[in-house]
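FORM 7B: Structural annotation worksheet

SECTION A. Query
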Amino acid sequence: MDNIFVGCRKGDLGRVKYLVEQKEVELNVRDNWDSTPLYYACLCGHTDLVKYLLENGAKCEANTFDGERCLYGALTSEVRKLLLDAKVITAQTKRRDDYDIFCEKILKAEDYSDITFLLEGNSTFKLHRCILSVRSDNFKSLLQSRWKDRPEIRNHMIESKVFEEFLKYVYTSRIVCQRDRLDSFYRLADQCQMPQLRAELDSAVVKAESFEGSKKGVRVSTISVESEKALWELQQAYGQLLEQGIPPEFSSWPPANVLPLMPTLPSSYFDMCLLVDGYRFYCHKVFVCVRSGYFNAMLHFNQNQLLEDNIPILKIVDFEPEVMTCVLYYIYTNNAQLSDDVVLDVLRSADMYLLSGLKRQCGAFLSNKVTVDNVMMLFQLARMYDLPRLENRCTEFIATNIDTIRENEEFQKAVVSDAAEVKGRQDTDSIQIIDDIRYHITSGVQTFSEVADANEKLRIIDDILESLGLEA
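SECTION B. Predicted structure
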């Protein structure tokens, strides 16, 4: 992670591109000084790098803490103009990890709504009992008592705009609100018994006031909440929903009779079931169908599905229950809880169920498992499933251990195969795998001993190509 901050300070666009596109480094990470890569690029006046970061999801919204800080620190007028002209492209609209987008989608998933709120001005919000209950003790209590059998709830005392932004926090753990409306959000947080929201707003206000105090004439008019703690709490809540429905044999959390604080929700909130090797996994359409186009199609176009108490049952025959457990944990919490025993089957399931984020998690997991014995198998797997981070890790490992891997038959086949893919190949055309290995050998070389080691490895590469009758 430190490398992206160094790259942004130095203006090394090539390095930053490599980290973002190959290593899949998150653009909106923060260092110990609460600064982002975009802030350093602005501060150092690297116009091309600022443009690249904005185009790829670096967060810089007007009147927010991050936006005003970048604008204030911009070294040149060109950088300042880039920031002012930039469209509102946030991390949530372009980041590689799609969990934030998924959370926004379930908020808008009216097809799976089971309760409607009608507020001032005839504003309508079609929501989901399971999510409201697991996120707010007040909602949980009301939905199991006064609101239990009511399909609609009317309340003309709450501002529609405030409630709309409040729901974004409930569903996504993020909220953006005007500073002059903070009192309304505090009241709603208290009424719904969500002390974590009040604490997050307090923290954001303190940060804004501290920034204003250090920068004369700057005013932060918009308060934004988007913290790792808030996201973690959201994932824990959604994990609790999942835990209610999966077989105890595959649960990673203690049951309610062992851990009394584990909340329990009515079984009526489940509206679908996955039958895997005789085990029933009860779950929620709003999660499973919104996140996986495969399950959505399977549920809506399977005319022969079983029904149990009006709950559709989808029979899964391709994977074991342990694999389905990982898939569901990913769908609900974005954490698949992978292990060596199941990761390859989970990768195959992620590809089948159209879960690109889960594929990347499998790739990241396997990136830490590369050895001399399995590097070529993982390299081929990376290409088969389009996992650039894993492929990059494999070529990096080969570069480090080229003297050992040079005789590997699968490695030699990969070199020959890449060479053959170049149409109308000339004698000195590049070979993809060789180019990647050479990049890793030469990048970051600084000392005389490192130069000597790199030259020896490049000589080995030349020997390999010569032995295969190739030049590149």
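SECTION C. Observations
The domain at 2-92 is CATH 1.25.40.20 (Serine Threonine Protein Phosphatase 5, Tetratricopeptide repeat). The CA atoms of residues 249 and 322 lie 9 Å apart.

SECTION D. Sign-off
Analyst initials: ____
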